[in-house]
C-alpha cells in the first residue's frame, strides 16, 4: 500500500483518559447545521453538492472543536462513496469565495486518482482519529467514553474491510485492527474482525491461531472461529492441537443450538483421518480411520446434501479400499453440487481404479470444457491419454499444460492504480480441501491449504 503523507492539524494524546470535547464544542446550532447540512442535500437529491460540501469540510484546517464532527464526516463520506460509487461531476476550487476557510495544501499530499483510492484515503484519515481518541482507562467512570470510542473504531474498520476487500488488501485491515486492540479490551466484535483479517489475508501463524481461539472465547457464537483455528492447525500439520480445538468446539456446540454440529463432526472426521498418517502402528491407523468414517457418516446424516461432507466420506472410503462405496458417495456429492472440482477429480480417480478408463477420460474432457485452464484435469487427461492412446497423445496434452502454466505463472503483473482491478484465477493440482465453517454453499467451493 502506498504510504500516505498528509498534513493533519489534529492534536493527539498519549493519555489513557478520554479528552473532554464537550467543554470545547461549538454552539449547538452551528454543530447541528454542520452535521445536518449534507444529509438534507442528499434528501433533496443534490448528491453532487452534498459530496462537495463534505469534501470541503474534511479538507479544511480546523481546531480541536470540530474533531468529533470531522470523524463523523470521514465515516459519512466513505459510506456515500461506497454506496453510490459516485464522484462529483463538477469540481470547484477549494478556496470558497467570501470565506476565510483554509485548506491543507502541500506538494507532499497524496492525491487519489480514482474512487477507491479516495475511499481508502478517507478511511485511513478516520482511522488516525480513532486511534488518537481511543480510551485506555478501564475505570467504570469511563465506560461510556470507551463504548463510544469502540463504536467509532468498529464503524471505521468495518468500512475499511469493505473497501480493502475490493483490492484484496486485507493486510491493511489486519494492521488497523491490531491498533484498535490497544483500546478494545475484550470487545468481541473487534477481536472477531481482527482474527478474520488473518484468515482473509492468508496469514497462518501461531499468532493468528491464538487470536482465533481468543476471539472464539469472547464471542457468543464461538464455533466458526474455533473451526477456523482448527483449520489453520491442520494446515500447519499440528493435528493434535487441531483435534483439541475441535473437541472444545464440539462441547460448546453440544451445549448450545447444535446448528453447526454437522460441521464440527466433519472437521472431527477430517482430523482423525489426518492423524492416522502420523501413527506408526498399523492398528492405530486403522482405528483412527474407522473413527474418521464414523464421524463423517454422522455429519452426513445431519446434513445429507453437504457436498464437502460427502466428498470427504468418499475420500476416506477410497483410502480404505472401499472403491464401490466411495464411488456411490461421490455420485451423491456431485448430485448435491455438480461443479465441486475436488469431487470431480476424485470421481476420475475412482473410475481409473475400476479400470474404466474410457469413462474417466470422458468425465475429464467434460470438466475441461468448463475449466480449460485447470492444470489438475490436464494432468489427469495426460495420464489417461497415455493409458488409452499411447505416449504421443499424452505428449500433446503435456504441451498444452506447459502453455497454460506459462500463461498463469510466467506473466508477472504489478500494482496498477485502476478503478477496476482484475484478478486472475486458475485451477491447481489436487490439494487439501476444507469447508467454510458456516456457509454450506460457500464450503462446496473448498478452501486451499
Runs in which pLDDT lies below 50 for 5 or more consecutive residues are 1-15, 88-98, 412-433, 445-449
* Number of helices in the DSSP assignment: 19
Q: What percentage of residues falls in helices of 4 or more residues?
A: 55-70%
- The value of Rg in angstroms is 28 Å
Average residue pLDDT: 77
Number of strands: 0
From N to C, what is the helix and strand string?
A: HHHHHHHHHHHHHHHHHHH
**Can you tell me the overall shape?**
globular
Given helix and strand content, the structural type is: mainly alpha
Distance between the termini: 26 Å
What about the largest sheet?
Answer: none
Q: Quaternary status of these chains?
A: single chain
Kindly estimate the percentage of residues that lie in beta strands according to DSSP.
under 5%
Would you write up a description of this structure?
The protein has 19 helices and no strands. It has 449 residues and is an all-alpha fold. The longest helix is centred in the middle third of the chain and has 25 residues, at 143-167.
List keywords for this structure.
disordered N terminus, mainly alpha
What is the secondary structure topology, with strand pairs?
Layout: H1 28-43, H2 47-59, H3 67-84, H4 115-132, H5 143-167, H6 170-180, H7 188-200, H8 206-218, H9 223-235, H10 239-254, H11 261-276, H12 282-302, H13 307-319, H14 323-336, H15 341-353, H16 357-370, H17 375-389, H18 391-409, H19 440-443
Helix pairs in contact: 1-2, 2-3, 3-4, 3-5, 4-5, 5-6, 6-7, 7-8, 8-9, 9-10, 9-11, 10-11, 11-12, 12-13, 13-14, 13-15, 14-15, 15-16, 16-17, 17-18
Amino acid at each position: 500500500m502506498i504510504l500516505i503523507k498528509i498534513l493533519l492539524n489534529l492534536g493527539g494524546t498519549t493519555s489513557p483518559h478520554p479528552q473532554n470535547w464537550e467543554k470545547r464544542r461549538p454552539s449547538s446550532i452551528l454543530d447541528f447545521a454542520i452535521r445536518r447540512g449534507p444529509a438534507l442535500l442528499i434528501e433533496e437529491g443534490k448528491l453532487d453538492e452534498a459530496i462537495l460540501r463534505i469534501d470541503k469540510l474534511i479538507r479544511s484546517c480546523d481546531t480541536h472543536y470540530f474533531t468529533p464532527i470531522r470523524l463523523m464526516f470521514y465515516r459519512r463520506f466513505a459510506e456515500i462513496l461506497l454506496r453510490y460509487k459516485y464522484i462529483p461531476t463538477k469540481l470547484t476550487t477549494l478556496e470558497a469565495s467570501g470565506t476565510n476557510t483554509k485548506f491543507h495544501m502541500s506538494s507532499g499530499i497524496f492525491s487519489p486518482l480514482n474512487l477507491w483510492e479516495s475511499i481508502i484515503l478517507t478511511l485511513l484519515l478516520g482511522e488516525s482519529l480513532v486511534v488518537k481518541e481511543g480510551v485506555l482507562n478501564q475505570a467504570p467512570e469511563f465506560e461510556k467514553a470507551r463504548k463510544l470510542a469502540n463504536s467509532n473504531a468498529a464503524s471505521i474498520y468495518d468500512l475499511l474491510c469493505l473497501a480493502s476487500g475490493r483490492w484484496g488488501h486485507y493486510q491493511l485491515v489486519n494492521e488497523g485492527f491490531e491498533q484498535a486492540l490497544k483500546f478494545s479490551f475484550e470487545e468481541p466484535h473487534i477481536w472477531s474482525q481482527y482474527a478474520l483479517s488473518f484468515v482473509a489475508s492468508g496469514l497462518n501463524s501461531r499468532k493468528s491461531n491464538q487470536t482465533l481461539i481468543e476471539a472464539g472465547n469472547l464471542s457468543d457464537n464461538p464455533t466458526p472461529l474455533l473451526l477456523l483455528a482448527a483449520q489453520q492447525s491442520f494446515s500447519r500439520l499440528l493435528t493434535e492441537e487441531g483435534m483439541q480445538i475441535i473437541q472444545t468446539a464440539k462441547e460448546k456446540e453440544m451445549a448450545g443450538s447444535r446448528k453447526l454440529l454437522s460441521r464440527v463432526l466433519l472437521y472431527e472426521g477430517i482430523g482423525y483421518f489426518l492423524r492416522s498418517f502420523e501413527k506408526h502402528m498399523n492398528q492405530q491407523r486403522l482405528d483412527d480411520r474407522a473413527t474418521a468414517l464414523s464421524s463423517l457418516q454422522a455429519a452426513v446424516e445431519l446434513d445429507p446434501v453437504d457436498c464437502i461432507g460427502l466428498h470427504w466420506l468418499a475420500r476416506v472410503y477410497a483410502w480404505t479400499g472401499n472403491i464401490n462405496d466411495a464411488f456411490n458417495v461421490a455420485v451423491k456429492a456431485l448430485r448435491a453440487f455438480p461443479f465441486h472440482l475436488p469431487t470431480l477429480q476424485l470421481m476420475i480417480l475412482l473410475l481409473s481404479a475400476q479400470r474404466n478408463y474410457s469413462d474417466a477420460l470422458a468425465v475429464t474432457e467434460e470438466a475441461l470444457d468448463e475449466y480449460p485452464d485447470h492444470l489438475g484435469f490436464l494432468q489427469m487427461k495426460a495420464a489417461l491419454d497415455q493409458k488409452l492412446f499411447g505416449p504421443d497423445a499424452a505428449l500433446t496434452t503435456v504441451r498444452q499444460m506447459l502453455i497454460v502454466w506459462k500463461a498463469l505463472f510466467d506473466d508477472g503483473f504489478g500494482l496498477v492504480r485502476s478503478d477496476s482491478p482484475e484478478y486472475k484465477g486458475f485451477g491447481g493440482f489436487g490439494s487439501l480441501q476444507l469447508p467454510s465453517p458456516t456457509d454450506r454453499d460457500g464450503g462446496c467451493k473448498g478452501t486451499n491449504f
